[in-house]
UniProtKB/TrEMBL annotation:
Any one Gene Ontology molecular-function term assigned to this protein's record: phosphoenolpyruvate carboxykinase (ATP) activity
Organism lineage: Bacteria, Bacillati, Bacillota, Bacilli, Lactobacillales
EC number: 4.1.1.49
Top-level taxon in the UniProt lineage: Bacteria
Name of this protein: Phosphoenolpyruvate carboxykinase (ATP)
UniProtKB keywords: Lyase
This protein's record includes keyword Lyase: yes
InterPro entries noted in UniProt: PEP_carboxykinase_ATP
Amino acid sequence: MSSNHLFDRKEIHSNNPRLSGFKTTIETAFYGNNVTEIKDVAAAYQLAFENSQTIVTDLPIDQPEKLGLPTDAKVLITNDGKIVGRSAIARKLILTTKEDKDFSALMREVVYHGQEKIFLKSSVVVGLHNDFMVKSHLMIPANFPMQLFQYLMNFEFSQNLTNIYEQSQEFPNENDLYFYADPDWQHPDYPDGLVILDPAHNCGAILGLRYFGELKKATLSLAWQIAHRNGFIACHGGMKQFQLPNSKYTMAAFGLSGTGKSTITLSHHGNKFPITVLHDDAFVINQKDGGTTALEPSYFDKTEDYAMDHAAIKYFLTAENVGITLDKNGQKVLVTGDIRNVNGRCIKSRFATKDRKDHINEKIDGVFWIMKDETLPPILKLNDPTLAAIFGVTLATKRSTAENIQVSDQLIIEPFANPFRTYPLAEDYQNFRTLFTNGTTCYILNTASFNERNISPEVTLKGIEDIVTKTGEFETFGPYPQIEYLKIDGYEPDFNNQKYRQALKTSLKTRLVFVEEKALNPFTELPTEVTDLLTEMILKLEK
């Protein structure tokens, strides 16, 4: 089996790199008399169903028996307070001995006072194919059974994959994941809550935060770290495969929440092609053979675009931060559309995708960086591996309501659309550069606007179809022979327009400044080729 939770007695000593003060403090809490293990999904559902913080709708869950749920299971709702998104400010990494010492001391106090509460614990598997699977354990106060139920619905309940897990690739030096959560925790030094992650020992604490997305992303962060250490590329993106008459085309789309990642990944393109979906949010690439593995069976999706008559409602398992009203039959149904608050969320079952796979053997044909950079045409093709990796590491976008921050139109940089990295940025840069060197083609999708024209999902999806079917016509992008743009009426770049050249120059300078600032920290420092190439691109606009 992949990760490990057992030790030979002679391995339990202070020199064992799998042990640390923080990891031992967290794992020890799992074995307290105040902790009850939930051993099946139905039991977790029942606890959530009966909890005073839960709203039980009249919406039936589709195919509940296949999910281990009661045949009459209903969609359950939990609503938070002021905070309805992820709090990046709360995130702390343990990377040094001092940080382990300091956070271990804090964690001992957390666990000590937590002994006054009753906790629930359960386990899931992250990774759905024997190529990559790790086990994750969560404990949370008993008055938050909905969060535990969401965890079991979002990931795969470990008992469901026992046989596959036991036959999965072994990672002998990797601990199982352990997470201690207490949404009620408060501390004057951490008014915004606290997420502590120890990437070396595969454990973490999520404190003072109710939003389920914190549990999900903490888990993915450390699962991606394990993958990265063991020869995989960690991917915060969506992947699907087109079945063409005589071939297949496998694509990966990388973007932050709100940029169109899920729309692009889950689109059926008008049923023009048979399409297989891997996942819309999290997967890993095996660097040895190029195969890809999904990490989650379900979809943690925004409810903003799902009115009550939308077909996707059928596949909801839970919802969070949404409203409730009564329909004409007096049944409790959802009020979505972000009417109650922004970033309403749901967990949709895997049944929402007709042709779903947990693993794709074929190598990736195309990587698509999704940006919201109004100086770029709808689709660019990058024909140089270094250039492709550079635009990935300087992926330009805008913040969304999924995060607990002020949303603005300011362009920000989020390398590879992954704000959850727990290892040096240069390692991701090199991994993606190697991917492109080995034959994967790179594209940029701008889903904002260009030439003061909005770029609709229809324009983006049509452009992807033209790439997949090799019917699109590309032209050189101004002074850059290694970059081409897909010809689309109304979206042609005009390099004779000085205003446009200046806007593109400003966008490239934003990237350059970002890279120069990151160079001040060894954890985020990048090779000098990145600044050299960006500088060269800027100079070409001054000629």
